[in-house]
Structures are given as structure tokens and as C-alpha cells.
Design brief:
Layout (H helix, E strand, L loop, with lengths): L2 H32 L1 E5 L2 H11 L3 E5 L14 H8 L3 E4 L5 H10 L4 E3 L1 H4 L4 E3 L8 E4 L7 H18 L4 H25 L7 E6 L3 H6 L3 E6 L9 H13 L4 E5 L5 H10 L2 E5 L14 H15 L4
Parallel strand pairs: 1-2, 1-3, 3-4, 7-8, 7-9, 9-10
Antiparallel strand pairs: 5-6
Helix pairs in contact: 2-6, 2-7, 6-7, 7-11, 9-10
Length: about 300
């Protein structure tokens, strides 16, 4: 075959290759656009939405890994993505910036999980039960039972947004409830026999966990880890650690351990690290919610001297 005849053949092949690539790209985009677009306010809701939605959803999180969710600020790009979502899963009252964006940009897509989360505990703004109360404690996800109920609600909300795949969403929610039920059983058994039932944590994030498993929580700061307790609060908490025979004070991921270390030095307690699961990073003790919660359980069993 001469050169004059080779060129047209190669040109046709190139056109076919480009066309095929374009078709693959278009198919990928089409597949993505057919999936439900879900925005989740912070990690536990993102993880639950992914588990419940499976292959039918594309889930994006507003709180990036390693960021503190309490004081989240949204970029214009994040607000635009939220506004374009089919479903926005959030916890009203936890992140003011998200509340505002939902109110102004995504009312129809909004799904507030707080009714399903059953927020029965009072929030403390300063240290322990000595601080000022302010609304409800938002940290429901550290109680697997409450998170399981929220998973069911997410499944129903996704089913309403995408009735064609409703059965799959409900199946995904059921599978997640089973996993969370198993986690609950592990915590209940693991924390049943402990020498100490006093839980002293970096901030008051573990109230629902403590309430579920028969522990008493004292937070060095309140529901916001950025709060600074005054000297009187630190003195009272130090006395509580001594009087109650607390041997472990828990610092937390994403927050400076300085206050926990100060109390530990004053009392002779040791310091361990709990993860409030407000975000997963490379430093987290696991790759997802279940793994990190099991790491928390191991830490608690050692720190509370459980048998």
C-alpha cells in the first residue's frame, strides 16, 4: 500500500478513536448525571449517605477532612454546589453557615436530620456541667443507636427524591442499621464492667455515647472545642478528677491537647486520645466511621479500666 492510501486510512482510524473516547466520556458524564446529587454537611452524615445511597448517589461533603466543623465557613463555590444538589443532608443548629445556605439556596432539597437524631441532651457552652446551657447537644452520631435511626430517615429521604431506586435505598439503610447495631452491641459489652464511669474529655462531644453506655461526661470545654474555660472551671475540673479517682483524661483529634495535658499533670492522670468523628484524616485511627469508633472503644476500655 502506498503512502497516499495510508494517510486517509489513518485519518479515519483517528476519527473513530476520538469518537469512541468522546462516547466513553459522554457515557461517564451521563451515568454521573443520572445519579442523585447529595451534599452532606459533615463527615458522619456524608458517610451514612454514601452507605445508604450506594451506587445511586454522588455525595459531596461541605466539611473537608481535618477541618473543625463547628465553625465552618462556606466558599461561594460550596454554596453553589449545595444549591445544585438534589438532597442536602444537614443538622439544623450545628453549623450556622450551612443553616443560612440551606435557607436561602436549597429549601426544597434540604433534609434536617435533627428530628430523627433525637437531640435530648442539653448543650454546655463552657466546661463540664458547670458551664452555661445553650440549646441541644448536637453530637448524636457518637451514639450508634441514634445514627442508625438517622440512617433510616436518610434512606426514606433518598427514596422520596428517587422513587425508581427506593428499594435499594431502604436496603442500604437496613444494611447500615445492622452494622451499627453490631457496633452498639460491642460498646455495650465492652463498657459494661469498668472501674471508672467518669469520662473527662477535651470538649463535651461524648454526651450521647456516655448516656447510652452508663458513663458520666465532663468536658474541659463545652460543645465548641474552641471555647476557653476560665481558671475557676479548670480548678473545679481538676478537683473532680482527683476526687473521682479518674486515671485518664481524653484529648481529641483536631483539637490541641494542651488543656487535657495540664489537668493530667496536675492530677497524675494519663492522657489518651478519642476521636469525635467530625472528620477523617490520615491521622485518624481508621478509614471510616466504624473503624474509628472501634478504636475509640479500645481506648475507652483501657482508660476506664474495663474488663
Amino acid at each position: 500500500m502506498n503512502a497516499a492510501r495510508i494517510a486517509p486510512v489513518l485519518g479515519a482510524a483517528a476519527v473513530l478513536a476520538v469518537t469512541a473516547c468522546g462516547s466513553d466520556s459522554a457515557a461517564t458524564d451521563a451515568g454521573r448525571s443520572e445519579r442523585l446529587s447529595v451534599t452532606a454537611a459533615f463527615y458522619p452524615l456524608q458517610w451514612a449517605s454514601e452507605r445508604v445511597g450506594g451506587d445511586h448517589v454522588v455525595v459531596s461533603g461541605l466539611t473537608k477532612p481535618g477541618a473543625e466543623p463547628h465553625d465552618l465557613e462556606l466558599t461561594p463555590k460550596a454554596v453553589a454546589e449545595l444549591a445544585a444538589s438534589d438532597v442536602v443532608v444537614y443538622l439544623e443548629g450545628f453549623q450556622p453557615a450551612v443553616d443560612e445556605a440551606v435557607e436561602t439556596q436549597a429549601k426544597d432539597a434540604a433534609f434536617d436530620v435533627s428530628p430523627s437524631a433525637d437531640l435530648t441532651l442539653t448543650a454546655i457552652e463552657e466546661g463540664g456541667d458547670r458551664g452555661e446551657t445553650s440549646g441541644k447537644d448536637p453530637h448524636f452520631w457518637l451514639d450508634p443507636v441514634r445514627l442508625a435511626t438517622v440512617a433510616t430517615a436518610i434512606g426514606e429521604r433518598l427514596a422520596a427524591a428517587d422513587p425508581e431506586n427506593a428499594a435499594d435505598y431502604r436496603a442500604g439503610a437496613a444494611a447500615l442499621r445492622k452494622d451499627l447495631g453490631g457496633l452498639h452491641d460491642e460498646f455495650a459489652a465492652g463498657l459494661e464492667q469498668c472501674r471508672s464511669d467518669e469520662l473527662v474529655t477535651g470538649h463535651a462531644a461524648f454526651g450521647y455515647l456516655a448516656d447510652r453506655y452508663g458513663l458520666g461526661q465532663e468536658g474541659i470545654t463545652g460543645v465548641s472545642p474552641d471555647a476557653e474555660p476560665d481558671a475557676a472551671t479548670l480548678r473545679e475540673l481538676t478537683e473532680h478528677v482527683r476526687d473521682a479517682g479518674v486515671t485518664t483524661v481524653y484529648a481529641e483529634t483536631l483539637v490541641s491537647p494542651a488543656l487535657a495535658e495540664t489537668i493530667a499533670r496536675e492530677t497524675g492522670a494519663s492522657v489518651a486520645v478519642l476521636d469525635p468523628l467530625e472528620g477523617i484524616t490520615e491521622e485518624s485511627a481508621g478509614a471510616d466511621y466504624l473503624e474509628v469508633m472501634r478504636a475509640n472503644l479500645r481506648t475507652l476500655r483501657e482508660g476506664q479500666q474495663c474488663t
